[in-house]
Specification:
The complex is a heterodimer.
Chain A: H1 15-22, H2 28-35, H3 39-46, H4 48-57, E1 62-67, E2 73-76, H5 84-93, E3 109-114, E4 117-122, E5 131-136, E6 141-145, E7 160-163, E8 182-185, E9 196-199
Antiparallel strand pairs in A: 1-2, 1-9, 3-4, 4-5, 5-6, 7-8
Chain B: H1 2-19, E1 23-27, E2 33-37, H2 38-44, H3 46-53, E3 62-63, H4 69-85, H5 88-96, H6 108-115, H7 119-131, H8 135-149, H9 154-161, H10 169-178, H11 180-184
Parallel strand pairs in B: 1-3
Antiparallel strand pairs in B: 1-2
Region (Disordered) (chain B): 1-21
InterPro entries (chain B): SKP1, SKP1-like, SKP1-like_dim_sf, SKP1/BTB/POZ_sf, Skp1_comp_dimer, Skp1_comp_POZ
Organism (chain B): Digitaria exilis
């Protein structure tokens, strides 16, 4: 045993091994505190590679329910649930009134939520296709989707669009991406108004 | 004639046995020699398994220039203990259960094995395990270090691991605000 006076520094380990260590921290709070210890740790924890490995091993923590009837309402997990602190932080940091949607939130109807993204549609009176946006309430960003080609369906506006689960193991990331393909289905895939579990990928602090 | 032939065969077998020793000798960066069971080395380390299969094992001591004697002693100690404690079938089933539990919990003896190590020795052992492709040992050592981080504040983490705080005051304040939930509400 070496004397405790001059302990070795964990910073000597290469990034790859730091990742292996951080992957074994199962509380998001431990990762957050670790990333606050020094810039090296933050760099490793916030890197896309680490976040991909983490999501591969553990699904994003469920932080609450998102009720999709109008107006959309986020209900954070409450104590003693282990995600309660992170859920409260998400509720404070994110915009669940979706005020950033183009033209304001009132025109939009929430269709689906998955992996921290919410899908909205808006009836369009000038086009066959409804307007669709996927948005990220935490970063107040959205991406407008172009119409799905090749459907050739005139009743398209009445279909229920939904977010297809990502299958490539990509998960979220530092950039804003739609984590899945958008598909259309003629059958309603969810009963509207039913609260959907909402796990947010981005609560690991990648942009502290 | 018959007898001679018998003798010759016996001689042959002895020679084969010598060439086919059941231990391998490993040499640390500082020139110390360690003997380890060939079977355990091949089973626990993908790198050593490759060297044994490829015939690049040196009977006078296979050079492992990246590994110091203290770390190598721990590696060898781990291999020998492992050879005595766990049948290979247990190892195989542990890798199959990947989906249900991403990391297998260390066994009691493995916990004790890493608990007695200093931080220096532990960090060196993580690197040695990584270098030698010893998945299980890497698992056990990384688990130990992550245990030392759990539930600790950034200050405590810096203290435990002797980490220099290289954030500016402004950055630190920003982090405190953004991650307040992680600092005060656990």
């Amino acid at each position: 045993m070496s004397p405790p006076a001059a302990p070795a520094s964990l910073q000597v380990l290469p990034d790859e091994l730091l990742e292996d260590i951080f992957l074994r921290l199962d509380a998001v709070a431990d990762l957050a505190r670790g990333s606050a210890a020094c810039t090296d740790f933050r760099r490793v924890i916030s890197a896309r590679r680490f976040r991909r490995r983490l999501r591969f091993l553990r699904p994003a923590p469920v932080l609450g329910c998102l009720a999709l009837y109008a107006p959309v309402e986020f209900r954070p997990a409450e104590p003693p649930h282990r995600s309660a602190p992170a859920a409260r932080a998400l509720a404070q940091a994110a915009d669940f009134t979706f005020s950033f949607l183009p033209g304001g939130p009132n025109d939009w109807r929430a269709c689906d939520a998955r992996d921290g993204r919410v899908l909205f549609s808006r009836r369009s009176f000038t086009a066959v296709f409804a307007d669709l946006v996927v948005c990220d309430p935490l970063h107040r960003r959205y991406v407008q989707l172009s119409p799905v080609p090749g459907t050739g369906c005139s009743g398209y506006q009445d279909l229920d669009p939904f977010l297809d689960p990502a299958t490539d193991g990509e998960g979220g990331g530092a950039g804003f991406a739609i984590p899945s393909d958008l598909r259309c289905s003629a059958v309603p895939t969810r009963v509207r108004g039913l609260p959907l579990l909402f796990g947010h990928q981005d609560m690991v602090p990648h942009h502290v | 004639m018959e007898v001679d032939k018998g003798k010759g065969e016996a001689e042959e077998t002895r020679k084969v046995a010598e060439a086919d020793r059941d231990t391998v000798t490993l040499k640390s960066s500082d020139g110390k020699l360690f003997e380890v069971s060939k079977e355990a080395a091949a089973r626990l380390s993908t790198v050593l398994a490759g060297m044994i299969a490829g015939g690049s094992i040196d009977d006078n001591g296979t050079d492992l220039k990246q590994i110091g004697s203290e770390a190598l002693e721990n590696v060898v100690d781990y291999c020998n203990k492992h050879a005595n404690s766990i049948p290979s079938a247990a190892l195989i089933s542990s890798s199959i259960s990947f989906n249900t539990a991403p990391f297998k919990e260390p066994e009691e003896w493995e916990r004790k094995f890493v608990d007695r190590l200093s931080h220096d020795a532990l960090f060196d052992l993580v690197e040695a395990a990584n270098f030698l492709g010893m998945e299980r040992l890497l698992d056990v050592t990384c688990h130990k270090i992550s245990e030392m981080m759990k539930g600790k504040s950034p200050d405590q983490i810096r203290e435990v691991f002797n980490i220099k705080n290289d954030y500016t005051k402004e950055e630190l304040e920003e982090i405190r605000q953004e991650l307040a939930w992680a600092f005060y509400d656990d």
